[in-house]
Amino acid sequence: MNIESAAVNILKRGVELDTKKRYTEALVCYQEGLQVLVDKMRGENDETNKNYLRKKVEEYMNRAEAIKKLVLKQKEEGKFHEQVHIENESTGHGYKTLFGRFLDEEVEFVVIEDPYVRSFHQCQNFLRLCELLVKSCDNLSQIKLTTTKDAKSQANQKEWFYNLTNDLQKYGVRLLVIYSDTLHDRQIILSSGWIIKIGRGLDFYKAPSNKFCLGIYDLDLRQCHETIVDIVHSKNVKLS
């Protein structure tokens, strides 16, 4: 695949997401596609081709700027809402792919509410999320998890959280774990105002077919259960 074809595929994906009103995802595609087109244009010697590429760059750049303004307006008005429908047995929905675009230097603390961070694989999912947060959020100082106790292996659950707490401290991040017997809702709240509500919580991945298959480590390759992801924005996020 040549450079121009790669750009076209990325931009087509952006248009598809744009049409579905998944604006923040579309914006990422537009930005990536535009960078490829700009690089191609700079190396183009044929003036006709160069003018064509310049026109396409301007076209998609204008749309990207329009999306930025639209998202900003919706955020200011408290009306931003983006929804992703994850279909049963679909792939391509690792945490970074799903909401990594919201993880940046503006995130200073994260609140995770999920009643099912109890069993080994559920705690592993939480660990994967913590790894992503540490790598993506340069100013992260605290992660607060509210979940329920594992009646069958509470000692193991506490040990896993204890080990993770010690590891996170090495990166200057404090982990606070709160247990609730009445928690039902599942959401990830970022101090930057973004709120990611996953119907099934963090545990929407299907069990791998064996211990040596694709998807064991890269969750983009893991099949999923059907669930709905709602992304909203609030200007009044607080660390309670």
Summary, kept brief:
This protein is α/β, with parallel strands linked by helices and 240 residues long. The protein has 6 helices and 7 strands; from the N terminus they run αααβαβαβαββββ. The chain has a 7-stranded mixed β-sheet, covered by helices on one side.
Describe this structure in words.
The protein is built from six helices and seven strands, in the order αααβαβαβαββββ. With 240 residues, the chain is an alpha/beta fold. The chain folds into two domains: 3-79, Phosphotransferase system, lactose/cellobiose-type IIA subunit (Methane Monooxygenase Hydroxylase, Chain G, domain 1), CATH 1.20.58; 82-233, Endonuclease, Chain A (2-Layer Sandwich), CATH 3.30.870.30. Strands 1-7-6-5-2-3-4 form a seven-stranded mixed sheet, covered by helices on one side. The longest helix has 31 residues, at 47-77. The N and C termini lie far apart (50 Å). It holds the Pfam family MIT. It comes from Pararge aegeria aegeria.
Which helices and strands, and how do they pair?
Elements: H1 3-19, H2 23-42, H3 47-77, E1 81-86, H4 95-99, E2 109-113, H5 120-136, E3 142-147, H6 154-169, E4 174-179, E5 187-190, E6 194-198, E7 227-233
Parallel strand pairs: 2-3, 3-4
Antiparallel strand pairs: 1-7, 2-5, 5-6, 6-7
Helix pairs in contact: 1-2, 2-3, 5-6
Domain MIT: 2-78
Protein name: Jg6037 protein
InterPro entries: MIT_dom, MIT_dom_sf, MIT_domain_contain_protein1, MITD1_C, MITD1_C_sf
CATH topology of the largest domain, what is it called?
Answer: Endonuclease, Chain A
- Shape, please? elongated
Task: Please name the CATH architecture of the largest domain.
Answer: 2-Layer Sandwich
Number of helices, counting only DSSP H or I runs of 4 residues or more: 6
Q: Radius of gyration in whole Å, from Cα? A: 20 Å
Secondary-structure element order, as H and E? HHHEHEHEHEEEE
